[in-house]
Amino acid sequence: MTEELVMILDILRGTSYAMTPLILAAVGEIVAERAGIVNIGLEGIMLLSGFMAVVFAEMAMNPWIGVLAGIGMGALIGLIHGYITAYLKGDHIISGLGINLFALGTVAFGIEAVWGVRGYYTPPLEAKVPIIPGIEISPLFIVMILITIGTYYLLYKTSIGLKIRAVGENPEAADVVGVNVELTQLLSAVYGAALAGLAGAFLSIDWLAAITKELPAGRGFIALALVNFANWNPILALGGGALFGFFWTLAEWIKNMAAIKAIIPVTLMNTIPYIATIAVVAGLIGRSRPPAHVGRPYKRE
Amino acid sequence: MPRNDTIVYMKDIVKVYPDGTVALRGVDFEVKKGEIHGLLGENGAGKTTLMKILSGLLRPTSGEIYIRGRKVHFKSASEALKHGIGMVHQHLALVPAFTAYENIILGLPGKVIDRKKIEELMETTGLKIPLDAKVEDLPFGVRQRIEILKMLYRNVDILILDEPTTNLTPIETKELFETLRNLKKQGKTIIFITHKLREVLEVTDRVTVLRRGRVVGVVETSKATPEMLAKMMVGREVVFRIEKKPARPGEPVLVVKDLWVRSDLGGWAVKGVSFAVYSGEIFGIAGVEGNGQSELVEAITGLRRVEKGQVILMGRDVTNKPPSELYRMGLSHIPEDRQKLGLVLDMTVAENSVLGIHRLKKFIGKLLNMKWKNINVHAKKIIERFEIVAPGVRAPARSLSGGNQQKLVVGRELSKTPVVIVAAQPTRGLDVAATEYIRKILIKMRDEGKAVLLVSADLDEVLQLSDRVAIMYEGEFMGIAKPEELTEEQIGLMMGGYHMDQLKNTSSNRKVLEAS
Ligand SMILES: Nc1ncnc2c1ncn2[C@@H]1O[C@H](COP(=O)(O)OP(=O)(O)OP(=O)(O)O)[C@@H](O)[C@H]1O
Ligand SMILES: [Mg+2]
Description:
heterodimer; A: mainly alpha; two-stranded antiparallel ribbon; 13 helices; B: alpha/beta; Rossmann fold; six-stranded mixed β-sheet; 20 strands; 25% strand; globular; disordered C terminus; binds adenosine-5'-triphosphate; binds magnesium ion
């Protein structure tokens, strides 16, 4: 194999990892927002779920138990967020903010309480999700692709998807024909948060194989932005996420080259994936159109 | 009391909204199977509230409901639907971003979705719609047909229509009535909410009249007269004819020269229109809706770009000037879509009553503090003058009934002491008393020397009020004349695209032919 080919394969593999958590969280959030529920707590969910994934994977010495724990943790938070926003008509942003703050405090404390270390812990190899031999990528990458396609199908090809989208566009119209608006919103919020939880588990017991209190490093917020860029469409989120992952990996590569390091500051290099993605996506998609009733509580009387 | 052919019986219904508003004070309501039953009442009488209770969207505070003799307690709209009750709402409950087809099947389990059946239904009822077009691209009349089909597809046999004709053109209204009669023949029961007497008399079998949350009477339509219904509804005699002194026009105040304006879709909506409105006259624009009237008004009031031509207000060129500047110069605008352009629904009645004039010294202090006392007095004055039914000046505009929201906007705009009034569909959705009042005010404004530009799809209204009238068709004026100089037939032809010169030509041609 030539050196160039090795390099290209390396970057593509890196891309497959970098894009997975973003797309998982974004696709989940797309479903929630299509039903009208905004969850800005994705970052917090990833962190909490990443933590729980390590705890359970280590306890069972089985990474899949860890993955399930991460999903479960996310679903639980989604349930709370969904109940507050859909049933109690609470403010979406406040509730999401609460999730983020809660996660920050809990995980920083949790790492110390569970493992007696400060801020950083590496789980044993047995607790890590194995790589697919031969192609050397994560099985969760494949799962992510399947979930994305499945979610697209759910939203656009099934009557359930029609209900979800109707609730986010005009809850009254859905209400009038007997759709249970609150329940639809609750379940969508749970689905969205569960996928963010899976993304968190992917970070801690797969890709990075470590838990720190900065585990998501802003990926939850990038996922939120991706939802917008992708115009609330899972397939476009897949494309946008891949693009971002690619530029991100590329930037990681370039900034470690001695020749480049000397002239361009690393912090400037870090902005490349963002700028490049925005430029490409903005050019391709143009104006996005959010669900008409997103983020607002639905009250009948 | 309920008999065998009674299909709906509501007994002693009381509804108190969470904010304390008593909307219904013990209403008995009975509908017979297979009839078209009118529910008549002024703005805020409680018509919508009563029907939302019947269709499961609201729960009554107290009272009983019997459907086909059986007592029911609806907890949601879907339960009412299971009993065959469906409601088509005043503002239509459709998802604009969905296709017609998607809206019809929304909420149904996959098993029962059958496109063929919908197409068959379209055949048998005559309700033709483009199934795959997005609702937001369709005109109001078509959207309403989608709503009706949606209900029929759910096997609804008690169909409730809330003020269905408000946004329809005269032709669409005729078609709707045809559909309703057709549905009645197929055995459906129809409840028709309105405050238009003519419609009640034309299409219903019986009428229940509501006033301020109480039933004032139930009558057989065949035995009813408009005067009697109006009196029941309003509680006093209503004058149908408008008294009008001859106009004494002065200077041209609003001049429009060769105006070209685009529609949202990019085509030309207004194609080189020119006219002048003089002080002391009402200049009316008639025509079937959707012929560029909305775009013309928006261009004049600074809400839409003028591509070519000029708008001159009191001698000053104000083409493409921002609305705020026009308002300062004394332009007052009663917009067509009052919910969207006229009100901030989540703000209070008092706040809405000073929107746009909140910078007046009367309302704002030196420290930019709002003078609430004065604002509340101002709001109360509007409520009183326009007989707005509102829980108070602090209530959110959202809690007012549809018609009362409209009165609030109209009241505010007319309280501005304007020089020019642009009124687009000023009485749409308003009840008899409010309509009468607003028409009188427009005439009073004219007599005080103000220039009034009136755009209305209600032909009677334009012809009665206007001193001069223009008929608009596909973005152009077919002619400008005094209403009394035109015959009904001529107006009809002009609304259908014939130029006034052509009409004169044809009649004189005919004379020539006869002579030879
Ligand atoms: N959500 C609400 N909260 C509080 N009060 C309300 C609400 N909706 C309606 N009301 C009040 O209840 C009364 C009846 O309103 P309703 O909408 O039933 O009138 P309506 O007869 O349909 O009038 P319109 O012809 O103007 O539509 C009004 O006084 C209105 O202000
Ligand atoms: Mg109403």
